[in-house]
């Protein structure tokens, strides 16, 4: 019951030669064919869908940004403020700005160190948002980071709409 080929070392076929460069039909030859066969395998198919989705979102974002920028430029040429049909006069609004008695630097420190607990929102007079921020923990840190940036740039006003000093 012995096999004559058992343990035998295969020898080269003299007709093919030592360094045969023949390409079979199963092996992809071009870059496109290699990528296509790579993404046709089931473990890699989800990657192709993700790449397609990302490219689609980038294109959609570009189209929307271009459309909004074009509309804003046309509205600015007509003197239309935010497309609402109102005229915008910066000097008029500058005279009407009120200044809060709350300090910007203190609000920034409260936001950095006690922001997830909502203390900065309580200090600025936003009681409901402070409670909501306290319950959610600053939405897991996202709301906290946004508030730090808004207060650092002095964009966030107090509860009465006045600018922090």
UniProtKB/TrEMBL annotation:
The chain crosses the membrane at residues 49-69, 103-119, 126-146. Residues 101-149 form the TM2 domain. Keywords: Membrane, Transmembrane, Transmembrane helix. One of its GO terms (cellular component) is membrane. Residues 1-25 are annotated as: Disordered. InterPro entries: TM2, TM2D1-3-like. Coiled coil: none annotated. It is a multi-pass membrane protein. It holds the Pfam family TM2. It is found in: Membrane. Belongs to the TM2 family. This is TM2 domain-containing protein. It comes from Bifiguratus adelaidae.
